[in-house]
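Input record (one chain):
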Amino acid sequence: MIRLDGISKSYNITRGQKRASIDVLRQINLLLKDGESLGIIGANGCGKSTLLRIIAGITVPTSGRMDIQGDVLTFLDTDSCFQDELSGTDNLVFYSTMLGWSREEMNSKLASVIRF
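The corresponding structure, as predicted from the sequence alone:
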């Protein structure tokens, strides 16, 4: 389960002598229940990756609350996440071990991950 309540993210930037704050995400609310899937689509620069990084715990939101029950594993950047020498299935097995899943857990979830 993933619950986001009022998640916002801003970055402070400096150009020359000027400082500014840029809002990347504003007041995002989301409830994704166990077993549900969600696709996030949008134009370049609209905050998709920032939102996923927040959910994965890679980036901290500027404000809002987040409650995540279960494991989150992301494939945000294929250059750094997928191992070229491994097949798609082997990559899934590799990253499930990084989550600490037992072989039984991995085998029970692998088919549904592949279907997704």
